[in-house]
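WARN no homologs supplied; continuing
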Amino acid sequence: MAEILDGKAVAAQMRAEVAEGVAELKSRNIPVRLDVMLVGDDPASATYVRMKQRDCEEVGIESRAHRFDANVSHKELAALVEELNADPTVSGFFIQLPLPAGLEALPLVSAIDPSKDVDGLSPLSAGRLAVGLPSLLPCTPHGVVQLLKRSGAEIEGKEAVVIGRSNLVGKPLAQLLLRENATVTVCHSRTRDLPEVARRAEILVVVAGRREMVGAEYVREGAIVVDVGIHGREGGGLVGDVRFDEVEPVASHITPVPGGVGPMTRAMLLYNTLQAARPQVGVFGSA
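OK structure emitted
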């Protein structure tokens, strides 16, 4: 039986550490504030923003939401990005994605100062990660690495396989695993003999975006399996990209869905906000 990688417990540990750091900065009159730009009335986006604001309240981070109708102009959103970049009381901010039809996210995200890019998604942040410069790291990939390390999993020297090559998770996760001295293979829909390649992995991370795609035939005996996927299930509940009941007897460690990677993603946003608030001019780019 595999050991469960408990994202809820590790995220709670990280939130407690963030709360201590926030209190220390506030004792020195250094503001710690996270802003979010929310466009339109997508229920899922609104729910995510409320959850993130509750997280901020829990650890003592001030949080503000800037809400816009779906018919807002790109020019108006771009003006707010520049305003938040210039505001010294704003530690970091992000744009809740996806944006409504007719609005292009990339130019707006690209305009975020990398020192305030708490989602770690701008091309500047991605480039700094790729070449090994200090940066605010994307929350989900960094959350996966923190979950592994804080659960006692050894990454250095291990063979890791990432199934998925998205800019949001797959690619930056591969770079972070390389930084931890793993040997990394990135797979995708065009990979030949995908189950065979996946079975080489001592650490298998599944970011495929396909409901319960990965079964026992993908998993090496004793592998660590991290499931980043999350999908609604008919009749209620959530499942991931991995067929948990089938894979769990084969793996040595496995993340549940929910309760695995999801809580870590939220915790890393708080962590990034604290890092962005620390007085370290020039470390992440423009200050």
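The longest helix spans residues 7-27.
OK
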